[in-house]
Automatic annotation (TrEMBL), chain A:
Belongs to the ALG6/ALG8 glucosyltransferase family. It comes from Nelumbo nucifera (Sacred lotus). GO terms for cellular component: endoplasmic reticulum membrane. Pathway: Protein modification; protein glycosylation. One of its GO terms (molecular function) is dolichyl pyrophosphate Man9GlcNAc2 alpha-1,3-glucosyltransferase activity. It is found in: Endoplasmic reticulum membrane. It is an enzyme of class 2 (transferase). The chain crosses the membrane at residues 32-53, 146-171, 183-199, 271-288, 337-356, 362-381, 424-442, 454-478, 484-506. This is Alpha-1,3-glucosyltransferase. InterPro entries: Glyco_trans_ALG6/ALG8. Keywords: Endoplasmic reticulum, Glycosyltransferase, Membrane, Transferase, Transmembrane, Transmembrane helix. The lineage of its organism: Eukaryota, Viridiplantae, Streptophyta, Embryophyta, Tracheophyta. GO terms for biological process: dolichol-linked oligosaccharide biosynthetic process.
Automatic annotation (TrEMBL), chain B:
It is an enzyme of class 2 (transferase). Pathway: Protein modification; protein glycosylation. The keyword Transmembrane helix applies. Its main location: endoplasmic reticulum. This is Alpha-1,3-glucosyltransferase. It comes from Nelumbo nucifera (Sacred lotus). PANTHER family: DOLICHYL GLYCOSYLTRANSFERASE, DOLICHYL PYROPHOSPHATE GLC1MAN9GLCNAC2 ALPHA-1,3-GLUCOSYLTRANSFERASE-RELATED. It is found in: Endoplasmic reticulum membrane. The chain crosses the membrane at residues 158-173, 207-229, 241-264, 285-307, 337-358, 474-496, 516-535.
Length: 528, 545
């Protein structure tokens, strides 16, 4: 027998106030069950809905569909399945007669390779032609597409969904201001992130795995299982090197926590060993010689590709309108420059987390540091905006407007890419779906706050929104002038960059403000 | 400090939210209700947009051809044209509707409305145009739902929206398979909402329009006739005759507007011949899950048993999907079924309901009665499509929130009817879509009904339980949520087995033998569920005081 609905929440609040702190943790669990017995089914509904949306997106085209000779990311992933399936693990990263690295050579860490191998087995079982060595290059068939889509869908369901659910459960356990709608809404917002769905299930990638591991690691930190968190984050790093955007945040938060304990050195050592162990296990096939190890490592860091690609809305690409970085400096100098800039931008958040590690501050640090990487690091891709988006979605309850704004401009920054993939229809419908969920009538908080905005702010927001809408239309309808073929791309990039910088500045300030109050809140909690 | 501030702000938010909730309850049908409906419709539309490139049946080409036909030929040739096998076989109002759409189609891409060059045209332009035309015409459905639910409290209203606006069956049939059922059902719901309000004249008017859009909705006409006769045409003799004439004029004028031009050209016979093609067989290619499935199966069974016993049974040459061609009967043992027989059976099944309507025409019951009529039509009608189950599943959603018993019945019915539509989408790409749609629907229905009926106090549920003469009401109050009952659970589990059999086990165990078995199993098994629903509805209608 349990209490249900809002009445249940009220009941919990009262009982929480009266009980002693010792019982609190235990009580929290009971409270969770009582409130969430009814919520569980609701969360399941949301998960099924999110899956339905993904399946519906997956019937649309993928990147490079029908576009020989190199096709796109879809062909890259398929090719990796083909290579991992038909060659021994030692050969995966090495150029040979079988494995031509110039044609979509494997350039992701070993965990991606293992995942490709498993998915390759799946494809071979149902449709051997689609992963046959050599002959399957550029393979395109309806059944092949369906199977490939299923590999992403299943990865999403196996990794990302449980991780998001784990995060939600941990995040709302022990909170006194739980509200059924908030929990459901938060899960929906995390699972229905339009950018992630479009890139994974439209464009075709496996970001859900590395991002899923990252969410899992965050949740593990929240539930005080730091070793588990280290393992999960190491897995994320080993699936996609891009997860390194978060590494400094994890590092500084865990370091800060360890330093506050009785035996800081031992704690750090434990975490370090766990990380090292995870790395050794995943890299095992390449540890037999330094040469093999370096070979893989060089594949993972393609510095020769230049400081930026296409028209990504980061600092280097945007300022290249005025300063021609690529022409003025050597690649090595640029590497050093971007490395320093990134560290400098990430430093405030790191210091904050080392000095005052807190759960809420950690989420902000993840956001700020991944922003720093997106804006300043070397070789950034449009899709990298998915990384700052992830902590922003975890913060969505605190910062609904920030999250909405960021998602909108993140989508806009990927607009040219998605348009090339013929994904305009899912782009529009997922954007609409996102707006509907972000401002759903069931959750009216966002709407109430808008009343406090001044006229100028409203005017500015309207101006920016109409600007972006016009850009959408211009990019879709008009042909750029011959002299500046990338004029519209540059305009989109400029607009997005300005917004990203503003948001990053805001969250940095917020994180530091948060710190000065965090101690007082903790004290307050102890008194309670 | 700030922590306190934020928490107090949150509390303030919650209290304001609760206030708005209260406000909503106080003024039903206020702006917030419309906003909420827009939200529900918006979410549904996003999914529909995503489904644009999915599989589409020949019905897509049928409707495209009708666009071309109505736009490029003069009205007098609409029902004579045979350029494509997909001749116009809907009543005139629908043809006018297609003519109206063709104006826009012409603006989008002139090839869509080209009678000869446009045949089997499948460019993006036509796909987007036709798919979006279905989505826009769904506005009619949303308006109907809004009219029907505007006076309800917010929880019930939301539940009905979930059931109708997010109906998986409508998405499967209209937005994947391709048809305009949402649009037509919208008219039915608008008509029912007028009747429930007591505005009979408008109700009759809208229903007459519906009949001129799609004549298959005429199955409920007897119910409408008796109801309007008894409820609308009341008062003294003069008064009632006056009202009868009034209603007759309104309905007649609708029919006159629709059929008038064809009457003028002297083509009424041709129009009717096109609308009622009795050349088609008793059953559709895929047997709709209705009474005739059992009839066919028992015929086969009897033939088999009798043949074993030594009787000489001739295998029938005709098939029951083939129609009334020649004199041979498709049945080996049992008597042959003609359209007249099915017609009489439908009327017979309807008669208890008609008696009830005659005795006490109550506006609160009209939705049930109309839904019952469509159930009868579905079960016993001639050449029934599986899609016709929408005609009673959608209106029944409105009454499903009224009591626990209703909710239980609807939970089962909606799942079965949606499942019976699965064979419509047979391609691998859409498999996961249809399964997820149904799964989501069942979950949402379960969650929604659970929260609705756990909120109502134990006392009222108890009373209800006693009233219904069953103890299940008590159980529901104790356990919380929707207790579906173990019989229904078992039924649904076997349904799952039927699906697993058809998809995997059949191929694995039997190989290519008996290829018709999976579909037949679905038909038979769903027919059981629909029969149950029919009996349940009949019992409810008879018992209702």
């Amino acid at each position: 027998m349990y209490v249900r609905g809002t009445g249940g929440v009220g009941h919990c609040e009262i009982s929480m106030g009266r009980k002693e702190k010792k019982d609190k943790d235990h009580k929290d669990d009971v409270c969770w069950l009582s409130v969430h017995g009814g919520v569980a089914a609701l969360l399941l509904c949301i998960a099924v809905f999110a899956l339905l949306v993904r399946v519906a997106v997956s019937i649309h085209p993928y990147s490079g569909a029908g576009d020989p000779p190199k096709y796109g990311d879809y062909e890259a992933q398929r090719h990796w399945m083909e290579i991992t399936l038909n060659t021994p693990a030692k050969e995966w990263y090495r150029n040979s007669t079988i494995n031509d690295l110039t044609y979509w050579g494997l350039d992701y860490p070993p965990l991606t390779a293992y995942q490709s191998y498993v998915h390759g087995l799946f494809l071979r079982f149902f449709h051997p032609d689609s992963v046959a060595l050599f002959t399957s290059r550029g393979h395109e068939s309806p059944i092949g597409k369906l199977l490939m889509r299923w590999t992403v869908l299943s990865s999403d369901v196996i990794v990302f969904f449980p991780a998001a659910l784990y995060f939600i459960i941990v995040f709302y356990t022990g909170r006194r201001d739980n509200c059924k709608e908030d929990i459901a809404w938060h899960l929906a917002i995390i699972l229905l992130n339009p950018c992630l769905i479009l890139i994974d299930h439209g464009h075709f990638q496996f970001n859900c795995i590395s991002l899923g591991f990252t969410i899992g690691a965050v949740a593990a930190i929240f539930s005080k299982h730091e070793l588990v968190a280290s393992v999960l984050f190491s897995l994320a790093l080993n699936h996609k090197q891009m997860s390194a955007y978060f590494a400094l945040a994890f590092f500084s938060h865990l370091l800060g926590k360890c330093l506050r304990r009785q035996k800081p050195f031992l704690e750090v050592l434990k975490l370090g060993l766990v990380v090292l162990g995870t790395f050794i296990i995943t890299w095992w096939p390449y540890l037999y010689s330094v040469d093999a190890f370096m070979q893989v490592l060089s594949r993972l860091t393609p510095f020769e590709r230049g400081i930026y690609e296409d028209y990504v809305a980061n600092f280097w690409c945007t300022t290249s309108i005025i300063i021609k970085w690529k022409r003025l400096f050597t690649t090595q100098l640029l590497q050093l420059l971007s490395f320093n800039a990134t560290i400098l931008a990430a430093l405030p958040s790191m210091v904050q987390q080392i000095r005052y590690p807190s759960n809420q501050g950690f989420l902000y640090a993840l956001l700020n540091i991944s922003f720093a990487f997106y804006l300043f690091s070397f070789q950034v891709h449009e899709k990298s905006i998915l990384l700052p988006l992830l902590p922003a979605s975890l913060l969505a309850v605190e910062e609904p407007h920030l999250f909405g704004w960021l998602t909108y401009y993140a989508l806009l920054s990927m607009y040219p890419l998605l348009l090339r993939d013929h994904l305009i229809l899912p782009y529009v419908s997922l954007l609409a779906l996102f707006i509907l969920f972000n401002y759903s009538p069931i959750r009216r908080q966002g709407r109430k706050e808008r009343g406090f905005l001044s006229v100028w702010k409203v005017l500015l927001i309207t101006l920016l929104l109409s600007c972006s809408l016009v850009l959408h239309l211009i990019y879709l309808m008009l042909k750029p002038p011959e002299r500046y073929p990338f004029l519209f791309d540059a305009m989109i990039m400029l607009l997005c960059f300005s917004q990203f910088v503003l948001l990053a500045a805001y969250t940095n300030v917020k994180q530091w403000k948060f710190m000065s109050h965090s101690t007082s809140i903790e004290k307050e909690k102890k008194i309670l | 400090m700030e922590g306190e501030l934020t928490s107090s702000r949150r509390v303030a938010h919650r209290s304001t939210r609760e206030e708005t909730e209260k406000e909503k309850n106080r003024i039903p049908g206020s702006v917030t209700a419309i906003e909420e409906l827009i939200w529900f419709a918006g979410v549904a539309t996003c999914i529909k947009l995503l489904l644009i490139p999915s599989y589409r049946s020949t019905d897509f080409e049928v409707h495209r051809h009708w666009l071309a036909l109505t736009s490029s030929l003069p009205l007098s040739q609409w029902y004579y044209d045979e350029t494509s096998p997909w001749t116009l076989d809907y009543p005139p109002l629908f043809a006018y509707f297609e003519r109206f759409l063709s104006i826009f189609a012409n603006l989008v891409d002139t090839k869509i409305v080209d009678l000869h060059n446009g045949l089997n045209y499948s460019a993006d332009s036509v796909v987007y145009f036709q798919r979006i035309s279905v989505m826009v015409s769904d506005l009619c459905l949303f308006y109907g739902v809004y009219r029907l639910t505007k006076s309800l409290d917010s929880a019930k209203r939301r539940m009905i929206w979930v059931l109708i606006v997010w109906s998986p069956a409508l998405i499967i049939v209209d937005h994947v398979h391709f048809q305009y059922n949402g649009f037509l059902l919208g008219f039915l719901l608008i008509s029912l909402s007028y009747l429930e309000e007591g505005r009979d004249l408008m109700g009759g008017f809208v229903f007459a329009m519906l009949l001129c859009f799609k004549h298959l909705f005429a199955v409920a006409a007897p119910v409408y006739f008796v109801y309007l006769l008894r409820h609308y045409c009341r008062g003294g003799l003069v008064n009632s005759i006056g009202k009868f004439l009034m209603m007759g004029t309104v309905v007649g004028s609708v029919f006159l507007v629709a059929f008038g031009p064809f009457l003028y050209h002297g083509q009424i016979q041709q129009v009717l011949r096109r609308m009622f093609p009795f050349g088609r067989g008793l059953c559709h290619a895929y047997w709709a899950p209705n009474f005739w499935v059992f009839y066919i199966i028992s015929d086969k069974g009897l033939a088999f048993v009798l043949a074993k016993l030594g009787f000489s049974i001739q295998t029938p040459a005709a098939s029951f999907t083939g129609g009334l061609v020649g004199d041979s009967s498709p049945f080996a043992v049992l008597p042959r079924v003609t359209p007249l027989v099915t017609f009489m059976l439908v009327l017979l099944a309807l008669s208890p309901c008609l008696v009830k309507v005659w005795r006490e025409p109550r506006p609160g019951m009209i939705t049930r009665w109309v839904a019952y009529a469509y159930t009868c039509g579905f079960l016993f009608g001639w050449h029934v499509h599986e899609k016709a189950s929408l005609h009673f599943v959608i209106p029944l959603a409105v009454v499903a929130v009224r009591s626990l018993e209703d909710a239980r019945h609807y939970f089962l019915l909606s799942i079965v009817s949606c499942y019976s539509l699965f064979p419509l989408l047979f391609e691998a790409d859409e498999y996961s879509i249809k399964v997820l749609l149904l799964l989501l629907h069942s979950l949402l229905t379960w969650v929604g009904f659970s929260s609705q009926f756990s909120k109502t106090t134990v006392v009222s549920t108890k009373q209800q339980g006693e009233k219904m003469g069953s103890k299940e009401g008590l159980v529901a109050a104790k356990g919380g949520g929707l207790v579906v009952g173990w019989v229904r659970i078992c039924y649904l589990l076997v349904l799952l087995f039927v699906e697993v059999w058809g998809q995997f086990l059949h191929h694995y165990l039997l190989g290519d033998k008996l290829p018709f078995l999976p579909l037949m199993l679905i038909s038979i098994y769903c027919a059981l569920g629909i029969m149950y629903s029919w009996i349940w509805q009949l019992r409810f209608i008879i018992r209702c005081p």
